[in-house]
Here is the input.
Amino acid sequence: MRFMPPSFPVSFPVSPPGTIPILIAPNPILKAKAKPVAKADDGAVRELAAKMLASMYLAPGIGLAAPQVGQSLRLIVIDLMPDNKPAPITLINPEILSLAEELATREEGCLSLPGQYAEVTRPARCKVRYLDLTGARHEIEADGLLNACLQHEIDHLDGVLFVDRLSALKRNIIMRRLAKEQRQKREDDRRR
Here is the structure.
């Protein structure tokens, strides 16, 4: 999830060391349901989570799901940077236990839909269960920005993008605008 647009365009022909390229919609991997992380994946998941955080910070963003970096695993990383200090959370096999009936609307963006934003309405609070990198089970209750970020990133694990929560008209406008901007970016990159 992207919190706010960067103050300058960030573009790398290849990913800097320690990062992974973030897939751009409409890549089909973004629409597939991710598989649960198994115990055998422990070492790989630690390395992947570290690279996902590095990629997310570089983008810049506040949340990233493994499918966004081409990995079909139920793994997300989030860092809302409270007090402008890193406080990353890694959630393995997160599952939503409950959602509030009350709704809240906030602007969302996505690292897989760069430069695209829209008002998205979601349940105002959620309760999520997950495993951390040590295998310990946790539950977290959230509202506000963390709530939206958790729901947004868990949606990615089920192949759902924030634009899928919009009307068909709004979704089509955003996807056409994204396609046009990506074509322009490729043309600009070729000219360099």
Helices lie at 42-58, 144-157, 168-191.
